Amino acid sequence: MKRAILAALVATAGCGYRVGHLEEVRSLNVPVFDNRTERRLTEFDLTNAVVRDIRARGVSVNRRDAPYELRGEIMDIDQPTVVEGRQDVVVVGSVMVKVRVELLEKRTGRIVWADERSEAAPFSGARGQSLDTARAEVFDRLSRWIVNRLETDWTVP
């Protein structure tokens, strides 16, 4: 009886489930993202966050024989803040980053999919937060979105 129930659960659990392509690909190239903004060096932080999350899924990054390449571009960064006092102490603010990513099949040069996303995070000096902590939060969110996008069906929306 227990085996029959277990078999039924396994059979129904597999219905309609599709493993994303990242599970099928064991290596992926990720060059440093482009940065179209005046805020330099942020491209390294975002690229490092993406590489960290991809490696956490067991995928090798930047092997010469990798069949695909993930390209990214930081299109916009907005960091409005409210300051007070003579020293312009930041009271509150936020960070917004817009990124474009595309997955390229290296052998053919074909773009498998491309997508864009914006993420934002507020911060408050009274809570011990800063521009840097908000930026790190935005990069973590974008990185998770990119890796989740790699795990879904690779079709252009």
What is this entry, summarized?
The chain is an alpha/beta fold. Helices cover 33% and strands 33% of the residues.
Structure notes:
This protein is α/β, with parallel strands linked by helices. It contains four helices and seven strands. Strand 6 (89-105) and strand 7 form a beta hairpin. Mean pLDDT is 82; it is low at 5-20.
CATH superfamily: ABC-type transport auxiliary lipoprotein component
Shape: elongated
Discrete helix count: 4
> According to CATH, what is the class?
Alpha Beta
Global structural class: alpha/beta
Task: Report the CATH topology name.
Answer: Rossmann fold
Give the percentage of residues in beta strands.
25-35%
Number of strands: 7
CATH architecture: 3-Layer(aba) Sandwich
Could you report the average pLDDT, rounded to the nearest whole number?
82
Relative helix content: 25-40%
Cα distance spanning the termini? 45 Å
H/E element sequence? HHEEHEEEEEH
Radius of gyration, Cα only, in angstroms? 20 Å
The number of domains: 1
Task: Give the key terms.
Rossmann fold, two-stranded parallel ribbon, alpha/beta, 4 helices, 7 strands
Summarize the SSE layout with pairings.
Blueprint: H1 2-13, H2 21-24, E1 27-28, E2 34-35, H3 42-56, E3 60-61, E4 68-78, E5 81-84, E6 89-105, E7 111-124, H4 131-151
Parallel strand pairs: 1-3, 2-4
Antiparallel strand pairs: 4-6, 5-6, 6-7
Helix pairs in contact: 3-4
